[in-house]
Amino acid sequence: MPSTPRAAIIPVTPFQQNCTLLWCDATKRAAVIDPGGDLDRIQAAIAKAGVTVEKILLTHGHIDHAGAAADLRDALGVPVEGPHRADKPLLDSLPETGAAYGIDGAKAVTPDRWLSEGDTVTVGELTFDVLHCPGHSPGSVVLVSRDARFAQVGDVLFRGSVGRTDLPGGDHAALISSIKTKLLPLGDDVAFIPGHGPTGTIGQERLSNPFLR
Question: Which branch of life, at top level (predicted)?
Fold first, then answer.
């Protein structure tokens, strides 16, 4: 039997971003996905779950998803993986972006491993396929567990909506293409955790998401 993924969603920062603590039930090895801020809340969730974090995963480089990645890496002594290299300018400019949004102390971060289409990421005994899904940002990635029928989609897709494309590097046509060519084919039974708001399923979005009509 493949190991089962478990997840705890930790809303962080004034943007209420879904930082996700994802772990392998068999090994209790975990990853923190998109630590945007509120490090104390993230560390409390890690302690409550009783898991060992082995890496930090970034779906893209925006401040509300990556603002605390450097500090969390220093605190835990673990590597950062993702996003795609196309988001390097966003990660390099996190201090300036944070200042513009009134978020103090954000630090630039360079991942220990950039992710590309076709790569895989492991968390304990779990394996996730990497899909490069540009549009919301040039380097956005989605992580898919085909065994568990589960995806971590960042700000590519939301329940009833899609990622905004009016930020630097955004491209609405590219975003819709990413969703239609890479996410919808995953199957209607695939559940997802987005970067903001409630969880959903691919099937629900195929039927009712107004941006995909």
Answer: Bacteria
